[in-house]
Known about the structure:
Layout: H1 5-14, H2 18-21, H3 25-42, E1 54-60, E2 63-72, H4 76-84, E3 91-92, E4 99-112, E5 115-128, E6 131-144, E7 149-157, E8 160-173, H5 176-179, H6 188-194, E9 201-213
Antiparallel strand pairs: 1-2, 2-9, 3-4, 4-5, 5-6, 6-7, 7-8, 8-9
Helix pairs in contact: 1-3
Amino acid sequence: MQQSPKAEFKKSENNRSKSVSEMNTNNVDDEVMEQGKLWRDAEKKYPWYDAPPKVKVTTKKGLCHMYIELTFGLPPRSVFELFTNPDNLPLVSDKSWRQLLVNKKRKVLKRDGPRQIVEVDKVVAWDFLWWSGGMPININAVENEKDLRGKYKKQKMKFMKVFEGSYKVEPIYVDFERLCNQKEPKSPEEYKKCSGGQGKIASKVTMDQIFSAISYF
């Protein structure tokens, strides 16, 4: 259940956040647009398939720890915006087209260069037997647009005693074996040089989530 990467590319190319523009807007926009063109041009010849998510769940002393790995056929900057941009396309079910996550409010509390602290209100859809509804979530998040990392912690959240976590977005150099003589580059700049600017960059997302529900029994 996720948004359309193709649609998200178009949004990312045309809709940059204010904090990104305060960094190096031209370089960021050029990177996203260049990658968008590479992915579209290579779609038929070198198709990309997102790997199935890897999920590991452990429980200790009443706390549930969930570790998740995801891959996206999008460059890291675009994937970071999936997590942080409230104007993105809605997250919907691939079966019922029900909206699963609704963005209600987003307020920047503090900004320090590429790092900012935000307060976020969302509503997450839930189902139990034949009942369904939405659970409001109020969290504070620290987002770093330079390192493409974030962490968050609940402020107000029904039924949850603990709800916090972190995530990071890292590049996957998709075409390095084909374009860089099998040598994996160590940076986007090195990859661009060895691939002649023709190498696609995908993303790996790792998430650490800790949560514990309130017991009423």
